[in-house]
Amino acid sequence: MLGGAGTPGTSNLKLYLTQAQLPAMILGRDAPRVPTDGHKTHRNALSVCAEEWRKLTEMSLIPNTILDDHASEFIQMYIPSHDLRVADPDEDTGDRLTVPCSLFRIHDTIIGRPSDMHRVSRWVTEFPLATLQRVLHLVFPHTQEWSFGAVMADPDDDIVSCVTWDRRNADRSADSAVAVMMQPPWIASAADLDSFVHCRRPNGDETEVEYNGKERMWAKLWDTCARRNCHYFVVTTYWGWVFGAFSRGRTRGFVTSVKPYNACSPTIIEFLTFWFASAMQISGGWVVPEVRLSSWTAMTQKKSRSRSIISAVLTWCNCRWLKLSLMSISAWVTC
Fold this sequence. Notes:
Largest sheet: 8 strands, mixed
Low-confidence stretches: 312-326, 331-335
Number of strands: 8
Radius of gyration: 20 Å
Distance between the termini: 31 Å
Mean pLDDT: 88
């Protein structure tokens, strides 16, 4: 079913996800100045330092082409294009799609131009994260017990804000799957984010070594994930997005390159859906490699070629039962 300006995004969720780019966030008049392109802010004074118990020793960049293809294939596999015939917003939970898309009727969300950390975090939580929660609950019903927790208390709350994707237990404890770390673009510029993703190892092993900005970001992220016992994470200024994960023992970190807020093929909403589903171990998602990245890349490229062959056969095939069988094989190949 094709979308229409008068129809809700739930009438063709797949089309909505592929077309819904995040709205532009224009800073308020009182916002601190953002450095010109290619320059760092030198303001990211997170209150973290080197610690013996923080065992992160190596960080690696995941090739974008591999993950982008994987994310798009995941969306094609799971996100429905038929009309779900559900109200949006949901009258019981309040969940709704919030990222605007000209092809669909999306209720307005007005936040105002940000000039502080609090309002930047609202742009992140009320646009992409609110939409993400709605999508996950619609497509994967077992995730309805998951939601975003409150913003975590932090001594650096004027320059950083963190939320986690949580499942509440009967004893009021929470299991966390993903941590989202937000910073304003006047604290973490495009150059700062780029420096963060290209950081390969902390600066020395001695606790008296003073971290620089990118190492403070890694340390803050490691501490947040360790505290909440999760491995997947997102780092964002809203203008730029980085997706990553730690290995089982959190000795290695893996990150994508920086994705712009208006990315397409996949969009930020598509990639968020893929990344959070991966964190919840939904079949066909990305699994944190327990081998060196070079070995994992070679294996992934081989699997990607296999998935491409299966996808081509699916396109050619018109028999429904054969399609379903091949999709099951495709999900197995991605594991």
